[in-house]
Amino acid sequence: MKKTFRVIGYLLSLLLITVICLYTFNLEYILKGVKVIYFTGHTTAYIDDYPQFDNRKIEAGKNVQTWAISKEYNSKNSTEKLKDLNIDLGTVAFLIIKNDSIWYEKYANGYDENSLTNSFSMAKSITVSLLGKAINEGKLKGLEQPVSDFFPEFKDYNGNALTLGDLASMSSGLNWDENYYNPFSQTARAYFKEDMREEILKLKLVENPGNSFKYLSGNTLLLGMIIEKATGMHLSEYLSESFWKPMGMKNDALWQLDSEESGLEKAYCCIASNARDFARFGKLYKNKGQWNGEQLLDSNFVALATHARFKESPQYGYGFWLSDYNGKDVFYMRGILGQYVIVIPEDDIIIVRLGEDLIRRKEDENHAPDFFIYIDEAYKMLDHD
Fold first, then answer.
1. Confidence check: pLDDT of 127 > 80
2. pTM beyond 0.85, yes or no
3. In a 10 Å sphere around its CB, with 0-12 CB exposed, 13-18 middle and 19+ buried, how is residue 148 labelled?
4. Which of 4, 196, 243, 291 fits as disulfide partner to 258, beta carbons 3.0 to 4.6 Å?
């Protein structure tokens, strides 16, 4: 019995020392990560984790604009391959929208058209949309405006200024560690730390900005801080006024904050909304920034965002992923667990998929394999070439 008490005492002492060390070395966010992830039975971030964080509401307006429903709505069954893939990867929402009408819609695992799930990095496309809106409204000068206008910490690198466009196109040259599985990485800090403003302002330029593509979530966090400063509004409020209300979103959404005290939206991720409302951003960009006769975004900005900035990196524009699959230009919003809003303008098709997992891509692949499968199987259902 004494031996048992000694072991328990040793373990408690070890736990206490570990906690003290985490706080001493500014790593206390790891404790929150353990609580949010492992204590809820998960091994990584998950689509329903938003109640574990502080959030700010993205208010929908009273003028809800419902989606048109195709005359052929759900007239075709899912292909067997798509059905199996959706089961295997935990798909909770799958939509095919043709000619701005919902043609196919399927929910699973207790989710429905009003269920909120985490956007993850699809929020990057939305943050870049807010950048375009702020430029339209004259609150920002343009993509070439230096970041140092807002934060002098990022003056220049070898005389080359870091610009808003560099942040939006993932070519900042900042020393951000984009590692999703290392608990000590900046990406892990961004997800769980309670004051990311200080962390972001510690970043340094280590490469010439605007030269090449390198995907860094810190770019979008810094961009969000700039939009907040330029507009004098929280990102959630600016998103509500700029897009959520004008586009007639059905439901309020939530944007995760680093903490209630700091109040910084995680601009690189973490908008909790539903498939139909996420799909509206696909429609907005497919229709060149126009929404029911109103130009919400400048068409030139939409064109720029959905085309590659760098020839050697054709997979990314400004906030949107790009592909020329099967000879068709495709742009899409993407989240880490296979969240997609896929737009194929040539055929007036939008595909939305939300769910719990994806087929991991290899290091030399720009797009996850399931991305292509969703397109292929949707076309088979539509009987398109």
1. yes
2. yes
3. middle
4. 196
